[in-house]
Amino acid sequence: MITNVATTRRRLSENLKKVRDRIASACDRARRDPQTVRLVAVTKYVEVDVIRQLLELGVTDIGESRAQQLNQRAGMMHEFFERKSVLGGRKDGPLVRPRWHMVGHLQRNKVKLVVPWAELTHSVDSLRLAEDLHQQAVKLGRVADILLQVNTSGERSKFGVAVGAAPHLAEHLAEWPGIRLCGLMTMAPLDAPATEIRLAFDRLRDIFEDMRGDRHVGPEFKHLSMGMSHDFESAIEAGATMVRIGSLLFEGLPSTTAIREDEEEA
Q1: Band of pLDDT at residue 260, cut at 50, 70 and 90
Q2: What is the pLDDT of residues 47-61, one digit of tens each?
Q3: Which of 5, 138, 143, 232 could form a disulfide with 227 if both were Cys (CB 3.0 to 4.6 A apart)?
Q4: How sure is the predictor about 90, in pLDDT bands with cuts at 50, 70 and 90?
């Protein structure tokens, strides 16, 4: 078990390099530029100090699975940066503020906790949730960027709209100025054969490509959020622009033993 900051930093740096190397290898196989894949670090099971170290290592996209935790941590980090600003910043250069992502299932009564902080909500799975996000964003004078979660595996245990419903929902979303549809998200079946996992990703990519030519989506419709620690390479090969990785990044750190971010919907 890691017991001090220096050792934590070293282990985190090693894990990050391994993840980035695997992202680069998957991109090479798919003949893609690694810069086209954004790493979202799912920090559900680590402390705020680890998030700060991630920022120092250049990982600025931070994903949270629970609305309350996102609200609390984003508020804490905001205060941290405000204090740094008052004190004149860091001697070794500025620390970049995180971009917060809501990646887990979002209940409608938790929307108020998320909208002030999240730069992207990955898990919009109903028209009513989208409307609540729109209304809250309008109240705050901003636009909420969202992804539409699609259940490409057909599993009853998975959240997400049905495959055939995505284009129809996009038509409704275009009418609301408080939200901006930036792409699609899915989760592949857990512990399924590789062919079944790849099929779920390919299905989302096909829906995405069909919708790109639709007049109801704009130029901001460009993201495919799919792939986690156990399947992100397959997702990249299928066209993912964002991968949500937790356990591989935090392996060996306190409170992360045997934890996987496929629990993000819990």
Answers
A1: very low
A2: 999 999 999 999 999
A3: 232
A4: low
Q: Which residues contact 121 (CB under 8 A, 6 or more apart)?
A: 101, 102, 106, 114, 133, 144, 145, 146, 147
d(CA 186, CA 50): 27
Topology (CATH) of 5-261: TIM Barrel (3.20.20)
